[in-house]
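Checklist before submission:
- one chain only
- standard amino acids only
- sequence pasted in full

Submission:
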Amino acid sequence: MRWLSLLAFAFVPFLSAHPLDDQAQLLSEVVIIDDQRLELVLDFRYVSVMASFSEYSGTLDKPGLDGNGDGEVSHEELKRRFNLLVDDMAFSFGINVDGQPVQLQADFERFVFKNMESTAPVDFSTPYPIHSARIHYRFVFAWTAPTPLAPGDHRVEYFFSGYQTVVHTPGEQMIAFDARTTPRRRLSDTSYDVAMEVFPKLIFNWDVKGPESSVTDIVVQSTAQAAPAQAPSGPAGIGELPGWLTFVAGLCMALTGLGTGARRAFLPGKGGASGARALLTSMLLLVAGSAIALGALVLMGYIDAG
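Returned file contents:
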């Protein structure tokens, strides 16, 4: 009975050969993937096997999916047809973000061709017969903001820019989803501009949240190196006393040495070895006390050591 199918194929009107024509039912979704990326998913399901023949045959000036008319579709024919359809659809619909058109990129790896008359997956290792196939196409387009979007609401408009006959109920055929949650949720705060019925438009706000804020401990390190601690001046242990007390102790020691030396030098009857030792002791007290007093003045900042 294959020749009957091909005969019917031959009599399909050649003016209708595009998913955006009324031979296919459209369901489209604009999906918020994250704060910087949108996806547009288009599903076209042909209403019957007979309707699918218009897509297989093409038109007088453009070949259809079955480019050579042999009743089968090869993987190369499918890729060629996908490229032609993407070129056509680029002028049929679009998306604006904040009033500016965005450039949608086709994600060919996620394009789908299915036969809705069969549950078995389509295998293109050999050409696929089309005489009893009802087409389901899926096209996926994506846009990523070239620069990060500022936090806040961004107006998104998904619209048809050319005449189309596949959107009859925009509220069911043009839907917005937010996939930043699991499971994804349908956006309810949407509106539709259907003043011109052949150019329906879906409008919604894309609430960009921006990077999540988190509380972290911030340690600020100076690039300047700390000066090494100065060792206390004077004899060991003296630097641990308050500066004024160190100065008084040194001054008292120096005055004691000075007084003892003067008494040994000017009082008679104090000669001999013992007198010499006493004089030497007084001189050591004078020198040591003077050094301690001077060190205390340096520590207290009264004398510049440099």
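Reviewer check: The CA atoms of residues 83 and 108 lie 9 Å apart.
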